[in-house]
Amino acid sequence: MTPAAATQDLEPLRRFYPDDVQPLMQALLGTLANLDLEHQYELERLERSTMRAGLKRDIAAKLKSRHQVRRAPYVDHLHALHVRRRVVAGAGRSGGEPESDLVRCT
Q1: Distance separating alpha carbons of residues 54 and 77, to the nearest angstrom
Q2: pTM strictly above 0.70
Q3: Which CA distances in Å does 20 have to 26, 55, 79, 80, 90?
Q4: In 10 A of CB 46, how many CB atoms?
Q5: Domain count, the chain
Q6: Given this model, what pLDDT does residue 98 score?
Q7: Which helix (H) or strand (E) segment is 14 a member of?
Q8: Which of 14, 67, 83, 94 can pair with 39 through a Cys bridge, CB separation 3.0 to 4.6 Å?
């Protein structure tokens, strides 16, 4: 992909998020992807282990809980950025222009 094509691919995102927010969001999403990948690796390693099924279930539940706790601050930060963008966009709108739900974090 040429640099010009890459820039064109980012144009729709720039309409939704200011240039100073975009790198932060990309970093947060990258961190979440890394956490998810690490979690998946841990679950696969657990599945390959020879321990009994009941113990595997207990450990898997603990891994899931730990994963949710580790992800929470990043998801919260993304959500706050999205809410801030919606508030700023809402303040600049005139009339009933529909709002985008580009990023929805739960």
Answers
A1: 36
A2: no
A3: 11, 47, 16, 15, 19
A4: 15
A5: 1
A6: 45
A7: helix 3-16
A8: 67
Domain residue limits at 34: 28-84
pLDDT of residue 2: 54
Residue that the structure tokens 């809980």 belong to? 65
Q: Which residue has the tokens 């690490």?
A: 38
What does each C-alpha distance from 87 to 46, 92, 95 come to in angstroms?
A: 44, 9, 14
Residue 2 lies in a domain: no
| pLDDT for 20 | 78
Q: How high is the pLDDT of residue 92?
A: 62
pLDDT category of residue 86 using cuts at 50, 70 and 90? confident
Residue 88 is predicted with a pLDDT of: 74
Residue 12 lies in a domain: no
Query: Would you list the DSSP string of 53-91?
Result: HHHHHHHHHHHHHHHHHHHHHHHHHHHHHHHHHHHHHHH
Residue 11 lies in a domain: no
Residue 9 lies in a domain: no
What average pLDDT does range 71-78 have in this prediction? 96
CA contacts within 13 A on the Cβ side of 59: 14
